[in-house]
Structure formats: C-alpha cells, structure tokens
Amino acid sequence: MATINNMSMNNYNVSSLFSNLNTSSKNQSSALSLSDYAAIRNGSYKKLMSAYYGSGAASGTDDSKDTSSLVRSLTTTSSDATSLAERTSALLDDASLYEKKDIVKKDEKTGEKSTVNDYDWDKIADKVQKFVDSYNETIEDAGESTTRGVLQNALWMTKVTSQNKNLLSQVGITVGGNNKLELDKDELKKANMSTIKSVFGSSSGYASQIQYKAKQISSAAQSSASAYTNTGKYNSSYTSAYNTIV
Fold first, then answer.
1. Which of 79, 24, 78, 70 is nearest to 51 (CA)?
2. Taking Cα atoms as reference points, which of 131, 150, 134 lies closest to residue 142?
C-alpha cells in the first residue's frame, strides 16, 4: 500500500476527510494526525486504510461487489458492532462486578466447597473476554468495508485503543500488530481492581469511548444497507447517509 501522503481520493481533500473525526460529547480532539495513520503498515489497520482510500469509499458505492453480498456484509457489521456496544454495557452498567462478595468455591481435587469474600473473577474475565471478541470481530468487519462512516469510526476506535495500550496491558490485554486485542485471563485476575474499574466501569473510561463508536459503526452500516431498494438497486436518495463521516 502506498503511503498516505501519495494517496488521493477523487475530488476529496485528504485532510478534510479526517477533520470531522471528533466526538464533542466525549471530549475528543477535533482531528487526528495523518502521521499516526502513516506509521501503520499491516493487519486490520492496513485493511481499514486501504478500504478508506479505495474507490468504493470515495463514491459511496462499490460496483465490483454483488449487491446482496454487500448488504449481507453491512448487516453483519451492524450486528457485530451492536454486540460490542451491548457487551461493553455489561461491563459499564454492572457496579456489583467491581465489588467483593461471598463466593462459593469448590476444590477441584477434594470437591470440598468453601465460601470466600472476593471479587467474582471468573465472571469478570468472562465479560472482558466477550468484549475483546466483539471488538476484534468489529475491527475485522470494518477492514472489509467500503462505507466511509464505518471506516471513519473504526479508525477512531483503533486510535483510542493505541492511546490506551499501556493501561490495557495492566489489565491483561495486549494490543497486537494487527490492532486486535488479546486477553490473558491470569494477568487480568492479578490486576488492581481500581485499574480494572477505570478501564471498564467508568463512564469516561476506555470502554465507554469504545461503546460510543461501536454504536456509530452499527448505525453507519445499517444506514448503508438500507440504501438499497428491494430490487437490489442503489437508492440515490441515501447517498449522503452512505457517505457521511460521523
């Protein structure tokens, strides 16, 4: 893939494409530096950038794809992004998850049961794993998309993840070279609960930011899927919605 500085996208100015990449309600910066993207050369991020600068992203349509296949892809993207938002809510909205409670444990060797006052680490790990799985599915979907609204928000999401890389490592999550996440449950269970709560249980934390953009991705994909008539033809009245950068 050529570097971003050498790319052009029909009549669009490259800098202006990223100028709207902000969420005032989340106090994000008004634009991201193109140099941040130029440094990424592989994995899902590369797919996102390649698709973003492809002719499909510029025109709002992709004539090389079968319409039914495109709609199915958009529907899958919307569904996976919705699942990501829901699984994030499961971490954000369950305050009891970050409180100690009486837990019955069973000794694997003797079968004897005992009650201890501790965090329900198995439940926490299960919910975090589901979040990680949904995040990776959404990034993978976006890497195959030509919808600018999907791409724009997915790029923002990987940017925020990169910015929180060190914090995520403290709760057992590694950000791979392909911008996907990997959870080490043993490391998660060793983490400081205040750190876990700041990442997943805070209304202004990492998970909350991801949830916001997951909803935007789902909405953009659904709007694009709705841009086709029952006969499979592109409905020109949806053009602006298809190309909107959220």
1. 70
2. 150
Question: Which candidate, 82, 211, 205, 62, places its Cα nearest to that of 144?
Answer: 62
Domain count, the chain: 1
As a whole number of angstroms, the distance between CA 154 and CA 199 comes to 19
Is residue 232 one of the residues assigned to a domain? yes
Measuring CA to CA, how many Å separate 121 from each of 50, 206, 242? Answer: 40, 20, 42
State residue 175 phi and psi, 5-degree precision: -95, 115
Residue 2 lies in a domain: no
- CA-angle at 227, arms to 221 and 228, nearest 5°: 115
Beta 173-175 vs 101-106: how paired, if at all? unpaired
> DSSP letter at 26?
G
Nearest to 4 by CA among 47, 48, 51, 53: 53
Q: Is residue 4 part of a domain?
A: no
Q: Which domain holds residue 221?
A: 16-243
| Alpha-carbon Rg for the chain in angstroms | 20
The answer to whether position 84 is within a domain reads: yes
User: How confident is the chain (246 residues) per 10-residue block, as mean pLDDT?
Assistant: 36 38 41 42 55 48 62 92 98 96 86 91 97 97 91 95 97 93 97 97 96 96 77 47 41
Burial environment of residue 123 by CB neighbours within 10 A (0 to 12, 13 to 18, 19 or more) = middle
Collapsing DSSP to helix, strand or coil, 168 comes out as: helix
One-letter amino acid at 188 equals: L
This prediction's pTM? 0.71
Nearest to 212 by CA among 157, 173, 159: 157
